[in-house]
């Protein structure tokens, strides 16, 4: 370097500083370009792209103009913006090691501005009021996505699910699939069950039209993951109500396939469903919609988010829905009104608090308890005419189903320093439901079915709390992301169930009589009623730890958890003797001993420089077996699961395309079988095994083309059991000798599933703003019982849709969008699963359209 270089650089920087001060002070010139002079690196002819550089940043919260100037000098950037328009705006504090783009996106969060980049030149741009996305777009690419946000298009690159830390999906050594907000908008599902139709490893509609719009509580939804029933979590906490099933309140849905007990406690080995509720957005959002659809559906929704304070450190959001609809079954309706208000307060640059409330009133939940026999569904001939899907075999005078649900939640976060942070999520839920209807009981003839009137009312209260410390540190070349936490869930549940035994009720499947009165009243001498009642209490507490260790491209995940479970059920039977008019009660069980379980997992994944990431993991799970004991009166050990999984993830460089392939084997132990030495009792030494593989693609192929596709193979069998059963034919008649269940396929889970869905926005001038989409779902055959008596056939369904941005064609209609979605386009009659001699029929063709306005 020449001796004269330093004085010249000093002189140049002095002149540049004077120019910047003149620009900043000029009253006539309101456009500002900071860092106009070359940096030392540029003066020496060495240019490193700023987007790829990491730098140490420590800029306090304050006035945006000043913060931008500080960042430009730190990162040697040119930042262009209108000084008058950003005057008085607040900038968030930015501290730590990060890229300039990450620093700028954090600084601008909540200001109403985003930015675009061309080389080292950055321009501030007004953020669109229609965008609800958490990540920031930088030069057409995504710098970093919000791990709990709605994703970009059909792709989410980061997640909190499975690890409870902000982690790229390509650094997690197990399968995680995200249903993004955009995918839900294009498909227009009316509940979570429908939203999961295209998710790998998930069979969401095994119960067919059982849930015609009702919620998801993780127990009766019919959703199966890798062959096992699933559990749902909202914002990381388990729930007991149906509040998570309302898609109008949801930003994203995630399927964590495989055991997840280390982070979430009691879950089946097939996985868990994670749901994220809507919360205040950094960018203002104003949206209303009016919808209509099949079976007389009318719907109105609103979703509004904006800042309360001028600086944007306090923001709010309100999501609301009102809907009334019939279903494909006569006299079974769905009605709901609900509201989800929330508020976020950034108390200071290191502390934030989010409060959410929810109230939902569902006077008609659309649930169909009426199953149809195999004769008329699986069998369709001269003796078994097809049973129409709209057939109602209940009684109009005894046909009420409804619920009321309320929830309060808070999410608190505080960063002590760059090494340690604290977060806590709390939820209180209260749910009340009541139903007076009938359910299918037994097939009597080819044209008649037996039904049983019942009356059930239940109330539940759930409290959940998850508290955790987490952070990052380095030990030499190893980078650690650690977390230590504790959570608990307390459930109090009360149910009264009464059944009408005054007579045997039958219904003709082709000409039902729906006006018959029923008698379910324990206080009436005219009614012969059997029922059950009693409280159920459940408490689970766990402590967990996890370390994500990263060295160059290699990531290692280690975690463990200890859980304690207490539960009791003081249930009673209630008999109303017609002659004595008396009620007798008898205890059905005492409080069992507490259970505990330790679960753990370990995995590794290696990210190559060209985007490919092979991985392997081992994980375990547990589920308590409540309510039954062995011959000594001792509670059974929890069901325990263990999984080995290996796979490949591929993030296409510089594109929003993620490809995943995984192979797995799951063993679930302590499955109950007969105790051969003690007649009438069970033994917990059985085993179920599930093995298979999944391949999937989530892709924003171009700005106009989005696609999801997957194939799932699942082979789940009874690996160890001494249970036997007789086979039955499709009419329900048993035949032959009893056969062993060992090695037989577990029923109601298809071995093969394939799906593809694509959305394309037409870029031509004559159809500007028009988009179309198309989907196909293939579900393979399933067995009906534990000894492979017979199968339900496979089926293929087609979905189509279109959307039109009217503002693209008519500027006066800016913000107005029309949409139409049709599922089961061909109106195919199909059976989703059968249980013995009864079957669940699938949903017929359903049309839904809406008009949405954003401003």
UniProtKB/TrEMBL annotation:
Signal peptide: 1-43
InterPro entries from the UniProt entry: Beta-barrel_TonB (IPR000531), Beta-barrel_TonB_sf (IPR036942), Plug_dom (IPR012910), Plug_dom_sf (IPR037066), Secretin/TonB_short_N (IPR011662), TonB-dep_rcpt-like (IPR039426), TonB_sidphr_rcpt (IPR010105)
GO molecular function, one term: signaling receptor activity
Record localization: Cell outer membrane
GO cellular component: cell outer membrane
Secretin/TonB short N-terminal domain span: 77-127
GO biological process: siderophore transport
Keywords: Cell outer membrane, Ion transport, Iron, Iron transport, Membrane, Receptor, Signal, TonB box, Transmembrane, Transmembrane beta strand, Transport
Pfam family, one: Plug
SMART domains named in the record: STN
Membrane-topology annotation of the record: Multi-pass membrane protein
Listed NCBIfam families: TonB-siderophor
Record family assignment: Belongs to the TonB-dependent receptor family.
Record-given protein name: TonB-dependent siderophore receptor
Designated gene of the protein: bfrH
